[in-house]
Amino acid sequence: MPHINAAAALQISMLLFALPAQYFISQWYGTDSAERIQITKRLIIASWSISTRSYLSLDAWADCLKLWLSKTRTSLYVELLILYFRNWYYGDNKTKSGHNEAKPHSYLAESTHVHSPKPEYIKFRVGQVIIHRRFGYSGVIVGWDVKANTPEEQLQPRYPPVKQDLKDTPHYRILINKANGFGKSTAYVPEDEITVIMGLEVYHPDMETYFSGYDGSKYIMQPWLKKLYPHD
After folding, report:
1. Domain membership of residue 194 as a residue range
2. What pTM, to 2 d.p., does this model score?
3. Which burial class, exposed, middle or buried, applies to 124 when counting CB atoms under 10 A from its CB (0-12, 13-18, 19+)?
């Protein structure tokens, strides 16, 4: 059994005595019961904060255990055991928390790979303002795919048998102009459903993320976007 020295015993005793002492002290401090209650709560919260850092911390107890056994034959074994436990504890927690994180995908013209070389059959460019032929809304192109890049379960209802050929045509990601009041903020559309328009500015909360300005014919890409579409 490890030997608890006087300093460690004193610290533990002070911790056990702190909360009841704080409570009784607070009862005689303050002008009324409401103030005494608030003081007691603050003392308890402060004591708990110190305790969690000092006595409820895995690292603190591990360091104490290493110190106690530093002069025994089992110190190396204990150190390895502590290292193993730390790796298991923090690694397992990190893995579990990672399961809840959203993983990035490359669907809907959101891929982060460089689109180069650009195929000649890609008619439009990032930064051009477009009008949707059927729905009439305007917007700006922020990305493209050489063909529909969408989860299969979304492709089936979107492209019935008579429109299956559209899946293999270029698709564009659009920030929809808020001035249209269309309801949706983005769209992912095939090439034959849009046409370019000149001299129309687009209003969307994400415009500055993608573009630095407008030159009257198209929007100027931010440097990070230009790296993804160097030929647009």
Report:
1. 128-228
2. 0.55
3. middle
